[in-house]
Amino acid sequence: MGQTQTENNKRKDNLVDHAMDRIIDFIKKNQLKVGNKLPSESYFIELLNVSRTVVREAFKSLNAMSIIKMSAGKKAEVGEFDDYVIGIMLSHALRTEQINVQQIWDARRAIEIRTAELAAIHHTEQQANQITTIVKNMRLNVSNLEQMTKYDIEFHKLIAQASKNPILPVLVGSLSNAINETNPVLWRVRTTKEQQSSVVKLHETIADAIIKSDPDAAKQAMEDHFDNASAWLLKAGFN
């Protein structure tokens, strides 16, 4: 009896998974770094003794995971560590109610309190200037939800970059996508200009502590910011 379509698909999936593992292993064994070129698909077809379809699917999957980067007409290269894939997974989990907003906020709180502390120690003058510019833009756009959300995300990502720990920008960036989900709701319950302005003030306090290189004050200011946000999330119906 011939194989069913389901069995054929399962076998192909197993071959693709195996090919992905071998390509990742190739990167590791050859100590390839970000931007280094990988051999052609034909090389891996011969190396792994599989079809072009299997290698192509493996390349596509690794590209989607940012492990490799593919561009039309060019050889694939080693991808850069970023927040894209984790951000998509978290957004999907949030929208399908596998996790909730308060859980995202709790994770962000734990990570970003430490991030602010490190940023106060390690930031550069250029990063201090960028943080200053962002909070000024937040103040100027306090009544513009779209712009406020944009600058809010930039603010937290920049602080993570200033921490000098390469893992933190990825975690903060992926978790910050939740801001896009929650800000519209939070802005509906923060109905007065004073309430909206207080959000900017909290960010200004964080920025001031980081720029003054005061890790204790930066840590406390970020903690105050998340305590305030959690209280408003409860008022908005998130629990």
UniProtKB/TrEMBL annotation:
Which keywords does UniProt give here?
DNA-binding, Transcription, Transcription regulation
**Which PROSITE patterns does this entry report, sorted A to Z?**
HTH_GNTR
Keyword Amino-acid biosynthesis (UniProt): no
Q: Which domain of life is it from?
A: Bacteria
List the SUPFAM superfamilies. GntR ligand-binding domain-like (SSF48008), Winged helix' DNA-binding domain (SSF46785)
Looking up Pfam families in the UniProt record yields: FCD, GntR
Q: Which residues form the HTH gntR-type domain?
A: 13-81
User: Does DNA-binding count among this protein's keywords?
Assistant: yes
Q: What is this protein called?
A: FadR/GntR family transcriptional regulator
